[in-house]
Design brief:
Distance between the termini: 54 Å
Strand content: 25-35%
Radius of gyration: 21 Å
Helix content: 25-40%
Oligomer: single chain
CATH superfamily of the largest domain: NAD(P)-binding Rossmann-like Domain
Largest sheet: 6 strands, parallel
Structural class: alpha/beta
Strand order of the largest sheet: 3-2-1-4-5-6
Number of strands: 13
Shape: elongated
CATH architecture of the largest domain: 3-Layer(aba) Sandwich
Number of domains: 2
CATH class of the largest domain: Alpha Beta
CATH topology of the largest domain: Rossmann fold
Length: about 220
């Protein structure tokens, strides 16, 4: 029996979402087992992940043939077929998967898998809508990511000249934590050990908030 690896996951369903998730995870040093019953989809991703296999995860025999305990997380990305998605969830739970994520098609699908005890429900379209709404409010916010239930990280572009004192006052008043800085002339973010005396348009910062609503930047920065 394999022991569970913290940085090893399985992705079931290789549609656009499943492929994107699997390849991005692999790029970020996470070992990925990609699974689909469609041979063509498996072949397309085989050289981009640690392992790719053809299997129908709505079939109990296929589920029992895999040692699921070796994975820290298993993601069911069969979002277009609710019946197959739920069948895979049931079989994986019976196989002892402890950290099970599921991509859902709509709120009905989300409600069903939530009641089944799935650890994380993923709704790509809903999340994209939220991001678009946040971007309309904060066009300078390039990306936002939820780390935990009460930790959000955002990459924010500076669009006006901002003095250090004003910048730090904003950070403090919004109860934010400054993580890293990338000046326009730099190619990568660096830990925020030293704060520049002045920020210029094109500079970027990474900040953490305890709430999604924490990123309420005043006119000073946006």
């Amino acid at each position: 029996m394999h022991t569970m690896k913290r940085n090893r996951i399985a992705v079931i369903g290789l549609g656009r979402f499943g492929q994107a998730l699997a390849t991005e995870a692999q790029k970020n040093s996470i070992e990925v087992l990609a699974i689909d019953r469609n041979e063509s989809l498996v072949n397309d991703i085989a050289d981009q992940v640690s392992e790719a296999i053809i299997a129908d995860c709505t079939n109990p025999k296929a589920i029992s043939a895999i040692d699921w305990q070796q994975f820290s997380t298993v993601i069911v990305a069969i979002g277009s077929d609710i019946k197959n998605s739920m069948m895979a969830v049931i079989l994986l739970q019976e196989a002892g998967v402890k950290n099970l994520w599921c991509k859902v098609q709509d709120r009905y699908h989300a409600a069903l898998v939530s009641r089944m005890g799935v650890q994380k429900v993923i709704s790509p379209e809903e999340e994209m809508g939220r991001r678009a709404g946040r971007h309309l409010r904060h066009p300078d916010m390039l990306q936002q990511m939820q780390l935990t239930e009460n930790q959000y990280v955002a990459e924010i572009k500076i669009v006006n000249i901002v003095e250090q004192r004003s910048f730090m006052s904003t950070i403090k008043s919004q109860d934010l934590i400054l993580l890293a800085i990338k000046l326009k002339k730099q190619t990568e973010f660096e830990m925020a050990r030293e704060i520049p005396s002045r920020f210029y348009p094109g500079d970027k910062v990474l900040v953490m908030s305890r709430t999604r609503e924490g990123f309420t930047w005043p006119t000073l920065l946006s």
